[in-house]
Amino acid sequence: MYLPSKIKPKYLVVSFLSIFLLILPFKKAAQNLFVFFTRQLVTNSRKYLSRLEELEKKGLILSLQIKELQYLKDENERLKKALGFKKEKKVNLEAVKIVSFDPSSWRRLVTINAGKTRGIKEGSSAINEEGYLLGRIVRIENSYSRLILIDDPNFSLPVFVGKSSSGLLCGSLGGVKIRYIEDGDQVQVKDKVWCRIAAYAFPIYIGEVKGIRKNKDDLFWDVDVRLFSQNPLLHKIFIVK
Amino acid sequence: MREKDCKIISVLFVLFILDLIKPFNYSLRAEFLFLGIIFLSLNYRFWFSFVLSIIFGYLKDSFGLEAIPLNLIEFSLFSALIHYFLLHFHKIPVRIFIVFAAIIIHIVLQAAHIRRIFPLFSLLFFIHSSLIFFLINYLLKKWIRISSAEYI
User: Fold this and answer.
1) Which end is more exposed in chain B, N or C (fewer Cβ atoms within 10 Å of the end residue's Cβ)?
2) Are residues A199 and A170 in the same domain?
């Protein structure tokens, strides 16, 4: 009698063995085939892997740079606090008009139509509509103030010249000069003359260098300046609050 | 008060306003009120010109920032000195000399006051002031009807 349940396992084993024996001589070929296909797969993935590694590396470098910048920013804030610098704030300007001039020809003083009631303070700087310095408030009353112009003989202001030099800007009736410059050889014609207002970080430009000279026995250089804002009547005046 | 006195007072006020508003900005280097005071001292009686010099000198000082009333002292001194000269000298060249001398002394006083000398500015001031004075003199004498020999 045929009993398939008993015979089946035997036949299965035999059939597996026979297949195995048949494949055995072709093992190497099969292996080669296997390696061939897997090599293709591995080669392509290696490219992607290396690209991935490159991107990961770049990402890591960028994140480190961000951390460094954040650290520098925090350090900058700490140093600013330590040195007592005020926080940068938005510029606050007050538009004013000239009411009258000083009757003397030897002074460059004007009276403007703004005073304490409009928040003007003594020592505030005046600029024109292009941002160039015009003068400084020297006296305030409730509704008017006196503004000394930059070319008044009694006007003086510490200024910077170019990138590295500094001196004292003095008015001289129609023009200005910078005195007490130590390193005049660093100064060149057309270098910008500028100053800083205490509450703000941006520079305020005044003019440019017109000429440089030094007498034999002098310690310092004198610099002539060509002002950017010559005629206050032709400009709008803004007081920096 | 005579008509001529009222006219000169109004003229001095106008010259003072011109100094305040500076219609030519700083390109015209002259002080109209100062030139008006010279004209007043040359053509009017002593006490009248002396008092007006003090008043307008004080007015000019009140619009400045200086602690010393320089213009009050200067104008009154000029008025007194010009009248002193006119007591002894009456000819026209002397009057011209007085005008030039007054302008030069004004330049020297202002330079001493601010403690700085501006040669080019001073020269231009002298030239502009001299020309404008002669213009004012010519126009005002016609309007106020002052003759050359007349001393009011």
Assistant:
1) N
2) yes
